[in-house]
Design brief:
This protein is an all-alpha fold. The chain folds into 2 domains: 4-165 and 288-309; 168-272, no CATH class. The chain has 11 helices and no strands. The chain is elongated, with a radius of gyration of 28 Å.
């Protein structure tokens, strides 16, 4: 909670006093949002983790600036224009996706969520006697982060001029960690191995567990293993409804399987799959909401104190009268 002993004026009126500072804040916010989008786009295209890190850092800085906008911009019109400008700059980074209906909807929803977040923060501030950063952050940041998460979810599941909604590189980054966790329960489940190699491992382990295995000649063991592997591969192909390259590693095989299944669906069903993918990725990103909100609040508070120290902003006491009804 802030100490109002810093107040330098009484009977101040809560209005915008510097258009230049408001425009500067909007430009800084738009630049941070653009950097977030730029590195996010590079991550989608290349799959480089470093781009995802840069994008996350830029997002934290943008959210810090956006959070402070709720404190500094008093006019709803000015605040909404600043948000619109920031969203348009972000959308311009994905100029090759402008024709996508999902992209336009996500950009529109992101704008509305940010407007809602700013309004909620301003309303909370107007009901406060003393400024409480954390309380305001709980009104602003969940909605603002959800806006960014929704936009990122749509950006991550689509590639321009691509028939499938996710690249092989990004699929690997999602699948491999999940497969690594699954390996704890299924030792033979290794994404680095091919389906054939996994089948061989399973067949060898099953054969070793039989009491007669130690008495069988090597040629017989090899024959039984090959038979078991062929049966396993046939079952996989039958389940998939098409032939699978069992020599490819597990990640590539599953990716190609999902891709082929997706492309075989009617257009209406493809849209449902896309919606499901967006929701799944959105929920994954939302899992990082709390630590990012804490980081944003901390960074915003530091920026806030620096601005006060340099005299860019000032905390003032507002004096106002209002009509009340009392019993006599």
């Amino acid at each position: 909670m802030l100490n109002l002993t810093k107040d330098i004026s009484v009977e101040a009126v809560e209005v915008d006093r510097s258009i230049f500072k408001i425009v500067s804040m909007a430009v800084i916010g738009a630049a941070a949002f653009a950097i977030f989008g730029y590195f996010l786009k590079l991550f989608v295209i290349t799959g480089g983790i470093n781009y995802l890190v840069f994008s996350s850092v830029a997002l934290i800085f943008f959210l810090s600036v956006f959070f402070l906008q709720a404190f500094f911009i008093k006019s709803a019109l000015m605040a909404n224009l600043a948000i619109l400008f920031e969203c348009l700059v972000l959308a311009s980074i994905f100029y090759d996706r402008i024709g996508s209906e999902a992209f336009l909807i996500s950009a529109g929803l992101a704008f509305l969520f940010l407007v809602w977040a700013n309004y909620s923060g301003g309303k909370e501030l107007r009901n406060m006697i003393k400024i409480n950063f954390w309380r305001v952050s709980k009104m602003v940041l969940p909605k603002a982060f959800a806006a960014a998460a929704l936009f990122a979810s749509v950006a991550l599941i689509g590639l321009p001029n691509s028939e499938f909604f996710i690249s092989k590189e990004n699929f690997q980054k999602i699948f491999v960690p999940s497969a690594t966790m699954a390996k704890r329960f299924f030792p033979d489940f290794d994404p680095a191995l091919s389906i054939n190699e996994i089948a061989v491992r399973m067949a060898e382990r099953e054969l070793e567990q039989t009491s007669q295995s130690q008495f069988l000649p090597k040629s017989t063991k090899t024959q039984l293993i090959n038979q078991s592997v062929n049966e396993f591969e046939n079952k996989i192909s039958g389940w998939a409804g098409s032939s699978i390259n069992t020599k490819a590693n597990l990640t590539e095989a599953i990716y190609e399987l999902i891709k082929n299944e997706y492309l075989s669906l009617p257009e209406k069903d493809r849209q449902l799959v896309l919606v499901g993918a967006i929701i799944f990725i959105f929920l994954m990103i939302e899992g990082f909401s709390l630590p990012i909100r804490i980081a944003v609040t901390f960074l915003a508070y530091i920026i806030y104190e620096i601005l006060i120290a340099f005299g860019v902003v000032a905390v003032m006491l507002e004096g106002k009268s209002r009509e009340i009804v009392v019993l006599k």
